[in-house]
Task: structure prediction
Amino acid sequence: MHPEPTPAARLRKRVFVGFAGTITMGLVLGGWYVSSRILVAAKPPSITRLILPLPPSPPEPVPSRPAKQVKVSPRPGETYLQLAAMGPRAMDSYLEELAARGIHPLIGPGPSENIYRVLTGPYANHAELEKTQRSLEGQGIQTIVRTY
Result:
């Protein structure tokens, strides 16, 4: 009978078998790669001509005209949706952005001389106000209900 191998002997055998397997796999893959390169080198090079379409011409620039500003002086008891409160410079670009979305708000007085409120309304009933508010929020525009 053969004596039981020691743990160190088993480890050496396992390392040897793993090393031998790795070397064998490397030689197989290397041989496959070299033979495929020889076969490719034996073929004449093929020339492929790719014709790409010309890129589309840029659209004609549309002259931007400032969004129409309709000013309103709310009366006591009227209810509006406030979209923003801002100064005149920021308001022009914001109004253009809203106009591009098909929203044409009113401009109301703000809390100070150089701040204006961007409003929609006035709303006669709460259902109409809520419908408009949901529509605006669906477009990513947060609103505040403002009763004067």
